[in-house]
Amino acid sequence: MAARAAGGSGDDGQDADAPLLDDLMPWSVRPLRTGRPWVVAPDAASLRARWDRLVRAPADERERLFRASRARDPWTSVAALPGQSTGTGRFAREDGPCPEPVRIAHGPFDQQWLLPDHRLIDAARPELWRVADGHQLFVVEHGHVPRDTGPALSVTALLPDGHSPAGRPGRIRPLYRRPGGLEPNLAPGLLALLGEHHGGPVAPEAVLAWVLAAARPSPAGCVVPLPADTARWSAGVELGRELLRLQLRGARGRERPRLPGGRRPYVRAAIPPVPTAPEYDPDEETLALGTGRISPVPAGAWEFRVGGVRVLELWFGRRTASGAPDPGGLEAVRPRTWPQEWTSELLELITLLALLDGLRPRQEGLDVGPPITAADLRAAGVLPAPASARRPASVLDHQEEGPDGQFALL
To answer: Of 5, 111, 188, 380, whose CB neighbour count within 10 A is largest?
Structure first.
């Protein structure tokens, strides 16, 4: 999370010559564009059932269920996604088993499942798939919303789709440009300059931690003031590492978020098979889902917003939409009753939001002090970043399968 840290809205004098995240992490990718909502779901079983229904349907019914767009139809010729062994023949001829769904970050703080078949996704951003591995971390900007007090960005170890709750897409910025945690996606010379200022080597993840702690939203993009003082730098990195640990939610060997004893949310009354929209009682710190009850739920978790949208309400609504746009379409293939695993995910999300909210005062009090300005970075030759740093690195060390089983031309 990166809220309005250091007490600013991103347009005060302190930020007048602060670098943008776009300066510091030059390579960015636009959000994924699925083109058809049915390829994403909160549960993997629904995706498998949708696939089975689609491939078993007669030709005319298959075309209707597919929901063709200008980028994809059942006869589109397209290569497989990097790292995926899905078919590359025309989908109109597909009759094989469902590819294994992959877990993705669906917008900020939601985790869902995706069918990783390039034939089904309008813009899957293959360059992201090529660098998504056990070392990679992705920074996701949420897009600027005026007067929003929520976080400007989030970080995930999952492949993110970059979805914005407010409908204002930001950018996806991998921490590394190559698999294996190689070649940081940082302006060339930035790590060396920070090391000179702060008396020793600076790791890419330390820069990411500072960005999480200090980034502020602005109409021009995320502003990231850099401190010249080592004590302030160290304090911000320490705070950022805690934010990173929470947002990774147990990934990369981190501990899963936990509230202290007595403050952990529990199910006080079982969530019914078809719960109604959530209602919050601030006096009792209780979240009601029909006859179901969860408490304690801190007010900060309930009120936590991104892009002006309450995260818990958005999360619940994605799982309980009363009807798909086409009742006969694939989006209507979904759980008929509330799965138990969703309750566990909800408890984890409440915990995460409560802990992130608890760190807001430290973020708002983060003092940058005398800054390293964008002018300083330009004088040191760090900025502007070269054009090559804004393009994907050439990471292919093997042949990728192209359309209809042909090898891709590299």
So the answer is: 5
